[in-house]
Amino acid sequence: MASTTNMETVALVVNEPKADFALTPIVLDEVRPDEVLVEMQYSGICHTDIVLQQGLLPMVEFPAVFGHEGAGIIRAVGSSAKDKSLAVGDAVLLSFTTCGDCKACTSGQLACCHRHPEVNHGAVRSDGSTPARLKSDPATTVRSQYFGQSSFSKVSVVQEKSVVKLCSASELGSGVKPGDLAVYAPMGCGFQTGAGTILNVLKPTSADSLIIFGMGSVGLAALMAAAHLKSTQPNSTMLIIAVDIVPERLALAKELGATHTVNGRDHPAGQANGHKKADPLADAIRKITPNGAGATMAVDCTGRLAIIETMIAAIGPQGTAAVVGVPPADASIQLDPLTFLLENKRLIGVIEGDANPAEFIPQLIDLHRRGQFPVDRLCKVYPVTQLKDAIHDMHAGSVIKPIIDWTVVE
């Protein structure tokens, strides 16, 4: 077992809002009884990591280490770990953490933890401490338990509640290939969020019409989950409408199961107010649906306020609109409350696909292995030293899910 105190490693530290991700030596204080020491192999890059780095979600103090889609190998297990199957050498995936005590947690609705923002975005332990400090300045602590894991660190002290076991050491290389860890790393957030919103929350049937706004990793995961459901429904007429502004992403959406695609650049989103105010994008989408009545359900994966308003306008009577993308802090949207009432519409927020990661992630992996959830088509791996290239390619739209490779770092 690795040493469990004063452990030296390197991490992508952000010293202050808008500062670069800097590969920096840090020291981890200890592995506590309810924690696990994980050597990262891969980590997905999520748009939220960039939002945090820019200081646009004021939930964490700096300096900090982000990353919340980790995949790695256990190097030590705390003495009070509840999952007695966890052992040194196990391959694990990392997801969000929870308080464990609120009504949602005790009833098994882990993604609805009432303290989700605090325990995940605070990036510290429950007692307010943090494992990491700068090696060059031991007096400077570094927030290093973002989502209970901070996977932008070569080695990280992880809350056990964030850990999902993938396989034992003996199975790695046979049943599970090392390269699988790269593809499965984003299961802990992006892929889980998109797929879970469809499979756990909206659950479209063969007669439904579904709009998905934003063909990033979350949106495409939602689309693949919907296409999977449609494939299990005999004679299904489900409509799956993909909306984006990047033609290449819309083409990929079509390949992955979208029945229709809409380019937002051809139909700009208006400042929708119900569907009474001019909104060319909402109008274009409604025309696709039966009798032009609007979709029965929709998911926004962009977090853009105008798109959320368009989404509400594009659903029909008794339709459900789900906000999944992270909107700006302290922002607001407009809607026509009378139309919203009279048409019996519903607007809901969905965190992490309303998933229990320990149960849901294995289900997604099984779907992937059966060819029903081809997330490997979204992924591209970059050495951690090429992080800037990975972020650039994600913003440019040429890559859906960039993944950083920690195995290149000693």
TrEMBL record:
Keywords: Metal-binding, Oxidoreductase, Zinc. Residues 18-404 form the Enoyl reductase (ER) domain. InterPro entries: ADH-like_C, ADH-like_N, ADH_Zn_CS, ER, GroES-like_sf, NAD(P)-bd_dom_sf. It holds the Pfam family ADH_zinc_N. Transmembrane segments: none annotated. The keyword NAD does not apply. Its cofactor is Zn(2+). Belongs to the zinc-containing alcohol dehydrogenase family. This is Enoyl reductase (ER) domain-containing protein. It comes from Sporothrix eucalyptigena.
